[in-house]
Amino acid sequence: MKKLGQITLGILTAMGGFVDIGDLVANSETGARYGMSLMWAVLLGVIGIVVFAEMAGRVATVSKRAVFDVVRERMGARMALINLFASFFINLLTLVAELAGVAIAFQLASDVNYLLWIPLAGFLVWFVIWRMKFETMERVFGLMGLVLIVGAVALVKLHPDWMHLWHQASHPSIPQGEGTPTYFYYAIALLGAAMTPYEVFFFSSGAVEEKWTRSDLFVNRSNVYIGFPLGGFFSIMLMALAATVFFPRGIGVEHLGQVALPTTLALGKIGLALMILGFFATTFGAALETGLSCGYTIAQYFGWQWGKLVKPRQAARFHLVVILSLVVAVLIGITAVDPVQITEYSIVLSAAALPLTYFPILVVANDRQYMGDKTNSKLSNTIASFFMVLLAIVAIATIPLMIATKAGQ
Amino acid sequence: MSDAPAGRTMYAALELLDRQIVDADGCMAGKVDDLELEASQDSDGLPVVVAILSGPGALAGHLGGRLGRWLASVQRRLREGPDTGPARIAFGAVKRIEDHVEVALPRESLESNRGEQWARDVVVDKIPGAGHAPE
Amino acid sequence: MGTAPGVARLAGLVVACLLCASCIKTISPARTTHTYLRKAAHTAEVVVSAVETARLVAKSAGDGKAFGPYTSVMLSEQEEQAGQAQDTFESVQPPNARSDKVRDHLGTLLNKVSDQLSALRIAARRGELDKLSRLARPLRELSKKLNKFIENPE
Asked: What's the alpha-carbon Rg for chain C, to the nearest Å?
């Protein structure tokens, strides 16, 4: 019975922790602009992250190696260093976006300019990383993120035309006056929002640190196979809310606060309060993961002691990197870069850089030397290979599309 | 390529380079960034691995090209004392080689750990709570 | 230990890139009527979005569904967004007399929008949430006119 409780808790944590600022922004933006026509991109992204998170978790459990550790070994020091630059840079951008999200959540509750909240957000993130236990950290913010379910209640209360929404989703089409390149640009954004690289760094590093054994593989799988798709449900929910309230009125999402508006209309102050709490929980949780990932990637490349399970003074360089990353992120944030824009950049660039992270994992997951008898099944390999081809196409198409559409305008 | 103590022949590039170094206490202590080789006295003529080189200086040498030179200049700028070359672990200190390289020395005695000590003394130890693992 | 300068350099690069990126949104000149009309229509779209959002927020606040701080933040944001769109549009040189007329037409609408959004923001900041529904009423007509403009920018 206790095991069932543990599994349920794991699933709920994964579900609540799935969404981050990228999902909040991208799903609402596309719902407002294209209705449900891009739902397929979200589904694709959820399948992708499920397949690769399971793989990364399995690799970490069986080989006891975290992602960047393995990347260097398999790709060689040179390729891995270039990989590190790109991954770290994108991680940092994402961290800025998440901190801005936390700050905006504070702003929505207080009407104090979000720029003033950014340094506090950065400090709080550092403090939690410094003091809170890994598992506690995950649990608290993961479960807190579940308050977003209020959006589903709101959606029902808004009485949308379900048939119309379903028709839009199942017969994707580009609305009048919208260009095809921009449509696919947003498809890439949704893919990147669901398949964030930092998730994989964080996940596998956590698995190594907590010394997952083969008996934990089942729990890992249930978290990923059930928890993540349920989290993906939140993404679709956000898209549907925007499709119902914003799409008919020609409203475009330029500010995180708008994401809470449909729920406010349906459920009033309680809905609004829970939504803002949900924004805080998801962006703060993601900021923790991204901040730690900044440390994981660099420390694992250079072979430094890393992790939250050891005393900070025994992983000094790791913690120094985390602190510096947060400082730099805060500094970038307070230059008033547009939060929605930087979120878009971070998810689109994440999508383009996915092959860097996923390809080494796929290779190692098939290597008997690391995995013993737990190499990929034929099904995993088929799906993963399909994704590698897709991600390669995405990687090539992203920058041209970004330029051609002026970053989605 | 063979290594002197165990006399094993191995593909150093595959089985040694870029591996995690683990110290006598089980702590992570850097990566095998480069290897120091010596001409062998044996009849088989294969070079012998004499030492493991670790640290940015060693990595710079291994990377080569512009990337290596950039890394080397960064490391030079950070080095406090005279440039003593890359951190070197004599191969005699290697206890075991599995998927990581176990070394029979504590981390503190390794030259490559200076960066860690600097980070600890100058920054991390100054923050309250550095000595507690998170509860 | 190579991270401190590395990270600092990276940070400098990032900031530089972002400053460049924020410049990508610069205004390109409009040389033909067609281009000018397109820009005008796009401006109107952005402003319609702000107006409609403001209407929803005002209604929510008036119905007691939204908190004061949220209402203030949202209404300020919409005012700023509409204002920015207007500034951007008005800085574009109209290429000919026909474009001048378009500029005047849209400009008049945008000025009215700006007045209403300011009034809403001021009332919200003062905590006068009950006034918001009344203040938002003119926005309905303005929204319709803007939508008509988008369909036929002249």
From this structure: 20
Total structural domains within chain B: 1
Cβ of C83: how many Cβ atoms within 10 Å? 17
Tell me if C152 is assigned to some domain.
no
Per-residue model confidence as pLDDT tens digits over A204-225: 888 888 888 888 888 888 889 9
| Alpha carbons B1 and A405: distance in angstroms, whole number | 55
Residue B21 within any structural domain of the chain: yes
**Chain A hits for B133, Cβ within 8 Å:** 308-311
Tell me whether residue C69 is exposed, middle or buried, using C-beta atoms within 10 angstroms of its C-beta: 0 to 12, 13 to 18, 19 or more. middle
For B1-135, strand residue ranges (E) read 2-3, 20-22, 28-31, 34-38, 48-54, 87-90, 94-97, 100-103
Does residue B131 fall inside a structural domain?
A: no
Q: Are A9 and A223 in contact (CB under 8 A)?
A: no
Indicate whether A390 pLDDT > 90. Answer: yes
Query: Which residues does chain C have within 8 Å of residue B116's beta carbon, measured at their own beta carbons?
Result: 1
In a domain, B132, yes or no: no
pLDDT at C1 over 50: no
Residue C24 domain flag: no
CATH code at C89? Answer: 1.20.120
Q: What domains can be seen in chain A, in order of their start residue?
A: 2-404 (1.10.4160.10)
Q: Which residue from A minimizes the CA distance to B17?
A: A73
Stretch (H or E) spanning A188: helix A180-194
pLDDT confidence of residue C6? 57
**Could you tell me if A116 lies within 8 Å of chain C, comparing CB atoms?**
no
The nearest CA of chain C is from the CA of A390 a distance in Å of 27
C140 in a structural domain: yes
The count of other CB atoms within 10 Å of the CB of residue A375 is 18
**What is the Cα–Cα distance from A20 to A238, expressed in whole angstroms?**
12
Confidence of residue C5 (pLDDT cuts 50, 70, 90): low
Residue B120 has pLDDT above 80, yes or no: yes
pLDDT greater at residue C14 or residue A64: A64
Q: Which of A180, A230, A200, A243 is nearest to A67 (CA)?
A: A200
Question: Would you say residue B98 has pLDDT above 80?
Answer: no
Q: What percent of chain A has pLDDT over 90?
A: 65
Structural domain that includes position C35: 30-147
Q: Which residue of C has its CA nearest to B118?
A: C1
Q: Do A303 and B28 lie within an 8 Å CB cutoff?
A: yes
Q: Which residue has the higher pLDDT, A6 or C124?
A: C124
Joined tokens for residue A332: 């970038």
Helix axes A21-34, A339-365, angle to 10 degrees: 110
For the stretch B7-32, pLDDT in tens is 556 666 567 888 888 888 888 888 88
Question: Could you tell me which residue, B62 or A171, shows the higher pLDDT?
Answer: A171
Percent of chain C residues topping a pLDDT of 70: 82
Q: Is residue C87 part of a domain?
A: yes
Q: How far is A108 from chain B (nearest CA, A)?
A: 31
Distance from CA of C41 to the nearest CA of A (A): 11
3-state secondary structure of B19: coil
In contact, A281 and A141? CB cutoff 8 Å: yes
pLDDT single digits (tens) A311-331: 888 888 999 999 999 999 999
DSSP A41-64: HHHHHHHHHHHHHHHHHHHHHHH-
Domain that holds residue B29: 2-126
* CB-nearest partner of B18 from A77, A130, A314: A77
Query: Is position B135 within any domain?
Result: no
- Residue B25 CB neighbour total at 10 angstroms: 11
Which residue is closest to B54 within chain C, CA to CA? C1
Q: What is the mean pLDDT of residues A14-36?
A: 93
The chain-wide mean pLDDT, for chain B, equals: 76
